[in-house]
Write a structure and sequence with these properties.
elongated; mainly beta; nine-stranded antiparallel beta sheet
Length: 202
């Protein structure tokens, strides 16, 4: 089985150009690298891009994890009253390991490993416009897509399960689209009214 929580965060660019790259290595083939760049775009706004690669190496129990990610964002202003942001992220991961109940690296009779692939993508945009000094309208749209594919070689018959577990393949996908419009009115320094529509389709 493969489970977890996906947290998606994209950075915004600042007023000065910045770039960095980091690399790391460890035992059993572990290696990682990340490159980032961000900064202003004259007359437009600011940008930020990032790419990373993780090779988890092979652990003592035979598991191996790889992950490649890339993300980017663009902030922009139109005049003094309209602000916007476009962002995106993609992550491609793979986990190889011996199936549960197989006995692991030392005891598994079937030496092929279970392979789980996970591809996640997100794109979106936000914008806000000041219609008056006290009235702002905000827009938010996004699209999320996740594809999972798990191929298991099964588990050979044994004392724990005399029939074993047959080979299998499981595919799953999630698609989610969201859109929101919010009106924000400053009634007084201590009172703000908000009203809008938020629609999500999965």
């Amino acid at each position: 089985a493969l489970g977890g929580v996906v947290s998606i965060i994209t950075r915004d660019g600042g007023e000065t150009f910045e770039a960095s790259a980091t690399m790391g290595a460890g035992a059993n083939g572990y290696a990682t690298g990340t490159a980032r760049a961000s900064g202003p775009i004259d007359g437009v706004g600011a940008f930020s891009v990032m790419a990373s690669r993780l090779d988890g190496g092979e652990s003592d129990n035979g598991a191996k994890r790889d992950l490649t990610t890339a993300s980017g964002s663009l902030k922009f202003d139109i005049g003094d009253s309209v602000r916007g942001r476009i962002f995106g992220r993609i992550a491609d991961g793979e986990l190889q390991r011996f199936p549960d109940d197989s006995g692991g690296e030392g005891l598994a009779a079937i030496r092929a490993k279970e392979r789980a692939e996970d591809l996640t993508a997100l794109i979106g945009a936000t914008a806000s416009a000041d219609l008056t000094d006290d009235w702002t309208i905000k827009f938010d749209v996004s699209y999320f897509d996740q594809e999972k594919n798990v191929v298991s070689p099964g588990v050979a018959p044994g004392l724990r399960d005399p029939f074993g577990i047959p080979a299998s393949q499981t595919e799953a996908s999630i698609e989610r689209a969201r859109g929101a419009i919010v009106n924000q009115i400053n009634v007084s320094p201590t009172l703000v009214l908000s009203a809008g529509v938020d629609v999500e389709v999965e």
